[in-house]
Amino acid sequence: MGNVEKSCPVVKNILLLDSEGKRVAVKYYTDDWDILASKLAFEKSIFTKTQRSNALAEVEIGMFDGYIVVYKFISDLHFFVTGGENENDLILATVLQGFFDGVSTLLRNNVEKRTALENLDLILLCIDEMVDGGIVLETEPSLITGRVSMRGSDIEPLGEQTISQAFAMAREHLARSLLN
Predict the structure, then answer these.
(1) In this predicted structure, what is the pLDDT of residue 146?
(2) Between vectors from CA 148 to CA 74 and to CA 100, what angle results, nearest 5°?
(3) 79 forms bridges with which residues in the sheet?
(4) Are 83 and 67 in contact (CB under 8 A)?
(5) Which of 31, 94, 32, 98 is nearest to 61 (CA)?
(6) Rounded Cα–Cα distance for residues 138 and 141 (Å)
(7) Residue 71 falls in which region: left (phi positive, over 0), alpha (psi -120 to 50) or beta
(8) I need a surface site. Which of 17, 39, 96, 133 has the fewest CB within 10 A?
(9) Residues 63-88: pLDDT tens digits?
(10) Which residues contact 92 (CB under 8 A, 6 or more apart)?
(11) What are the beta bridge partners of residue 135?
């Protein structure tokens, strides 16, 4: 695994915080922050240091606490991706933009805390489709949202169905597969 870590970009964490710095969705991939208190302290630190930034239009890149942090804000949500100090900041920015665009698509451009919390499962799936164990798997928003929305032969695309319809269809599909 040591060679993989040296040759592949490694994401330390992906954070989605609200306008007060509180967690909406977070995923840590390394042991740099081994306990909850250190994770919360890191989140508070980068939130405080980026709070006055104007990261609304474009991705911003900064060095905080020895880590490269890329971030972007919209409405009452703050998106962050963290990498090591020697990580390629352009790759981290691409991961952030893929996450941001994927969430925007999944939330039908209604990117705000309330909608994010109502669709937290989709946001967490989005993160899982992008990064696994810190290794970047995918950054293309259309591919990420396609996987998240479970496009398949007998399932409509997410844009053409409500979430409750999607869950009903998934339950029905699971029941059929268990009976066969």
Answers:
(1) 84
(2) 20
(3) 16, 72
(4) yes
(5) 94
(6) 8
(7) beta
(8) 133
(9) 998 999 999 999 899 999 999 999 99
(10) 9, 11, 61, 68, 70, 81, 82, 83
(11) 10, 132
CA distance 74 to 47: 14
Bridge partners (DSSP) of residue 74 are: 77
Q: What is the pLDDT of residue 152?
A: 32
* Model pLDDT for residues 96-128, shown as the tens digit of each residue: 999 999 999 988 888 899 999 998 989 999 999
The residue ranges of DSSP E strands in 36-147, in sequence order, are: 60-64, 67-74, 77-84, 131-132, 135-136
Q: How far is CA 178 from the centre of its chain?
A: 31
Which residues lie below 8 Å from residue 40, measured CB to CB, with a gap of 6+? none
Residue with tokens 């709070």: 51
Higher pLDDT, 165 or 137: 137
Task: Please state, as a whole number, how many other Cβ atoms lie within 10 Å of the Cβ of residue 154.
Answer: 8
